[in-house]
Hints:
Chain B: Belongs to the ABC transporter superfamily. Energy-coupling factor EcfA family. The complex is a heterodimer. Chain A has helices at residues 16-19, 22-35, 42-58, 63-69, 71-87, 104-130, 133-143, 154-184, 194-199, 202-225, 244-263, and strands at 93-97, 100-103.
Amino acid sequence: MNxxxxxxxxxxxxxxxxxxxxxxxxxxxxxxxxxVFFANSTLSYAWLTLFAxxxxxxxxxxxxxxxxxxxxxxxxxxxxxxxxxxxxxxxxVLIEAFALKIYSGAIIQGVAISFRFFLLxxxxxxxxxxxxxxxxxxxxxxxxxxxxxxxxxxxxxxxMMSISLRFIPTLMQETxxxxxxxxxxxxxxxTGPLKDRIQAVVPLLVPLFVSAFKRAEELAMAMxxxxxxxxxxxxxxxxxxxxxxxIISLITFAVVILVLFFLRT
Amino acid sequence: MDISFNQVSYTYQPNTPFEHxxxxxxxxxxxxxxxxxxxxxxxxxxxxxIQHLNGLLRPTAGKxxxxxxxxxxxKKVTSIKSLRKHVGVVFQYPEHxxxxxxxxxxxxxGPRNFNTPQxxxxxxxxxxxxxxxLPLAILERPPFDLSGGQMRRVAIAGVLAMDPSVLVxxxxxxGLDPKGQQQIMDMFYQLHQEKKLTTILVTHxxxxxxxxxxxMIILDHGSKYMEGRPVDIFKEKEKLQAVQLDLPEIIxxxxxxxxxxxxxxxxxxxxxxxxxxxxxxxxxxVSKHE
Lengths: 265, 290
């Protein structure tokens, strides 16, 4: 199943980043994503990069592994760079070839934007790399808790999230199993005219839906049999707890952001 | 069709941290028309093995030969579809593959994919319905209305309707009640004999292996652990227990009789009644001598 795509994958390790409260991580990343857009000088970019790289190394996941995992995203970054290179018309003309003029401002702009993009993706992928989906769901439920006051179904949303995350691998397996069974009955998913290939999806989708509905019904019954009745008065197996290390991390991050504002021009 | 595996290895996700060697250097031959049981613990490579039989997987090393079809690591097979026509696979829980509006359409799905003429399909449907012991009256009903056991029979009928010459069965009786299990297995055995099929049965049931198979392959961690006639294999109790496999009850019983009374009765697929008489005469013979 692993096709070298890292986004959304969890890599277990024993670094302190892994052990941080997921809420700390989500909040940090949320604000990092916002403040990346405030960087406007070489120095401020360097400062944010230093922060991102430090965190990356602290996860104890091999840097090469992360870079390789981001391969599909490289295309987007290069594309962004090229787009800016040809579209921006600021500064002095550096190169003039054919009908194209490349401006100095365009290079600066292109590098800045694609670098910003890279930082965003690197840091956000660190979240899923170091946090299990269950932890993320728990953290979201806890962070959205205040919305309960305006009757927003926070618990239900979190439950839906964790159930769907839980069943992604199951569905993948099921898809593989059924497509193999149908391939054995002569369905050709790979070759042939487009029309035939679209039709070949029906024998795959119908059984998948049938079993997904059946599974949902069984799950609902199993939950009810174990006395599930919504979030009211429900206690948690894994209590989220802010430790000293979380507080220190958040304060460090706040300092990083303050310094960023000094480095802006 | 003769089937042979020549030093076949299969590796999932090679050259990644998730690399897994499912089959290692596996060689065996299955002559046309034989009934082979493939036995092994969970994760021993049984499922990977059977996916090689109709080209769902290609070996990462070695060569698989099924009749005139050759499967090798770096050679793409052009005639994969006609290979699949000859090798019918009944997967675990085959009822999950049903999808058509009516039972009739679902059974016709396989043969239609292989361009079997409509008249021929019409002729086969009543045959396979009879083979799996379902009434023709339900042909126009949706398959999802049926009970689990009946759905499985419909799915099996769908594979049989392809008229394969090799039948691969992956635990076809899992999750059925004892009576249903016996019926399904008897049905496969009858088909095997009537149509001279080459049958490959993956099973956890030593009883079934003993009763139906004339050849047995035991896998352990992707390698061949033992191979031979079931009666010979079940003589080696200790070797089997080393890979968490048990003896069939009947063999176990005969061994206990031998230990207790010192008379040996070879198993030759006798029925219960025949065995009882045999034990009785032999026991009387022993007591007369004393």
